[in-house]
Request: fold
Amino acid sequence: MADDYPRTGKTLYLNIIWHQHQPLYLDPASDQLQGPWVRTHGTKDYYDTTSILEHYPNVHFTVNLTSSLLVQLDEHYVKRLKQCVNLKTNRVNAAKYFRTFAGKTDPWIDVALKPTRNFDERDLEVLLTNVWNAFGVSEVVIRRFPQYKALKDKYDSFGPGSLTEQELRETKFWFYLAHFDPDFLEKRVRLVTGTTIDLTDLVGKDADGTYRLKKAINEDDCNRIVAEAYKVLAAIVPLHKTMMYRPASGTGQVEVITTPFYHPILPLIYDTDIARECQPNDALPPRFHFPQDAEAQVAKAVAYFTSQFGTRPTGMWPAEGAVAHEIVPLLAKQGILWIATDEKILSRSRPANLPKYYPYVVKGDGETHSIVIVFRDTELSDKIGFVYQHSRGEDAADDFIRHALRYVPREDEPDRLLTVILDGENAWEWYRHDNDGKEFQHALYRKLSKLFETRQIVTTTVTEYIDGNPSRGIAAHPIGTLPTLERLYPGSWINANYDTWIGEEEENRAWEYLLTARTDLERSGILSPDPASKPPRKGSIAYYSYKAWESLYAAEGSDWFWWYGTDQTAPAGDKPFDLAYITHLNNVYAFVELAKRKLPKRNFEPIARVPATVQRRAGGTMAQSSEEMVTVVFQVDCKGMYVRKSIYIVGNHELLGSWVPNRVRMYDDGTHGDLRKSDSIWTLEIQLPPGMEIQYKYTNSGAEGSWDPGEEFPWEHRTITVCGDEQSRQVLLDRFGKI
Reply:
């Protein structure tokens, strides 16, 4: 596809921010991570998302590395595995590992290094039945590994006892291999640290794009794959340090930023009553008002970032884009130059309805403590996260460029900075026709490189845009010249409020628990530590006092509140996150006791009561707003057909099963929008965002996950665009098997 686009005006500046985050999976009592996702996304996403720019020197973007991600990466993987991995033999000293770090990284490393013949019930639970298990990969990903999928199908059909010792060995190996970036599977890759990854002796790629094992897997292969994973994990921070944009010299391609330390909804830690402005009709919990904790979360993040990268961050992505005017001073006091959030916040701020393609200044205490804020283009960001997953990479990149070019300013207009922000980790596993989104990313950066040469689109970072970079022809845009917001509206990038984290019964109960623990800790007399200080000597009174506050700060993280209530439900249910939250609260009391202080006895009962009712999100944790949605009624005429069980709908949205067939059923019983019972017109009514392209088809009575029999037409699908804001309802009537 051609990379030439008609010139329509002056240069458009494009600011792309990749958000990389994992919640804190640490159980402090066992000193073990309870989830594998820092490691799996490390080998699949965190390295190659940035390293790809080595091929495109004229492309710049920003990467947000959250503190909770960096701490787990460094403390539980890099520092510990480094002591056990021999880079010359490319193997792990398993005896030393089990002697020193058994149960101290994540359980799947122990399982990989332990001989399969010696597995006990705990090992089998970790591998097969844990809520996060070796078959916990997306349907799109596992189809690229037919041997892996065959193991899953056998397990699903006949249970854990059906897998032989060799099949269990292959299962634990596949769980690692399937989470390596395709580049690592297809060629020798030299990492920035000087080590290399080359898995081509273990796996090959067939003509249909799927991968197969070249040999029977043995325990030595399982040992090696852990060593290979370590090498990638150990190179993530060095890569970002190497490619980091340096404002003083104008060199480097990647501005690295961070998030408040434990990923809290900062305005709610500052004061939950701030939510009354954006959620006037919601019941709120008793007031949680601790500005000092909000400041500590920012200060801790800045200190940790500085220790990792040798320089302070100039930008910060507030967790979930949650902002409020009240938190501006504490961000500015920590040296933060700029922040970002969603365009819906801008439309509600004062002055109202300002254009999203300019940076704005928000002033804190009078004329002091000002920061710059940018607002993401929601539609363009969501195209990458949700829409392009069913497109060819070249087509998606072309659509992205054409959409961006709509915002090119006229020659007589001020410069514009268009901002795109989304997850850099979760969307790619749902790209059906583009393995890991590699074709899209290469095509996008190739096109942007060409557009840099023609000066139609110049990628930049916010700091680079403000300071200017003469070597790239970017003029300075000093803070004093930028337009000012009189009032920054409180809210997040989801619904322009905080209702994902506060306002429902479960969420409010969690805030009540947090207030109880926070009040008890303060009454214990243990003073909060200097946020920039390092942990005291282990085993000391000071250490346990420090850990009590760390447990409290961890409980302030947004990830626990995200899953409470009915607005978000985890694929395997909310219990693991509920347990993690309660564990952090209980640890406050446990560490206070070890610090020789007394606290009241508290019994924090589990909060989550609702079982899992929805499937895993397609596209990642950056959810779309539930406001301003369109009711879409899907109807399919099945007259003259034999329907043994049900008609199902499948498509490119989580409410349509994320392309997993026979997961989302339709109805012919007068419910779910169905007008007439038993009239052979099957119906499903759901809500979707306006403007989204929906691709879908129907199936008849098959097993979940299987296209045969019952798919109405293989290799084809239907496509609609959800109607615009002026309509609130869209009704479709299809005929099964006919377009």
